[in-house]
Amino acid sequence: MNAADDKTIVREYFNSTGFDRWRRIYGDGEVNKVQLDIRNGHQQTVDTVIGWLKADNNLSELSICDAGCGVGSLSIPLAADGAKVYASDISEKMVSEGKDRALQTLGNSDNPTFAVQDLESLSGSYHTVICLDVLIHYPQEKADEMISHLCSLAQSRIILSFAPKTCALSILKKIGSFFPGPSKTTRAYLHREADVVKILESNGFCVQRQSMTKTRFYFSRILEATRQ
Ligand code: SAM
Predict the structure, then answer these.
(1) N or C: the chain end with fewer CB closer than 10 Å?
(2) ipTM reported for the complex surpasses 0.95
């Protein structure tokens, strides 16, 4: 399967069965135990990133690109805290849900700005570019290009999260929980931290903060890197 096929499958997944599944996981309604575990893990990742950004005490001065924003789990609280957020995702269903949630939480507001857009076609310049839990859809050779592109949009900082390859065995055992049923054809790619750091460094960025979220069914390594 080539990368273009991968991307089409991912888009279709997040506009159909994947949308229903992840909207529930990223919500507060009733879910099964595995989904609850993933919900809690993902929330920890979001909270870690918000904690880092708030610690710098300049959120209201920042422009933020949330690439692959899903239903706005990160974008909406960041906008509520005063950052100017540009939120985009390849899935129109996820974006539409994000808009609805922003309206419910923030009322009529043009912040975040939501767009249906894949990462590769993003342009512009932002203080901080954030991409959480999207790299799992990219094989390493595509991930290199994708990270380099995101770096080119970041004036000062990039924050990425990915499923680390060290947890490969445990994740592979549980991968059926990530992509159940017919959508198992959606591949999950793990990434070596050293590879991610290398590509960040080759784009002029240096890792400043790092964290690991690990629950039973959710693993996410988070790196913050700043431009040198
Ligand atoms: N970043 C969000 C969060 O942490 O709440 C969503 C994470 S979700 C696991 C992965 C998201 O990446 C999905 O909403 C999916 O549609 C999006 N995605 C996957 N490939 C993408 C691409 N090439 N361009 C933009 N978004 C993409």
Answers:
(1) C
(2) yes
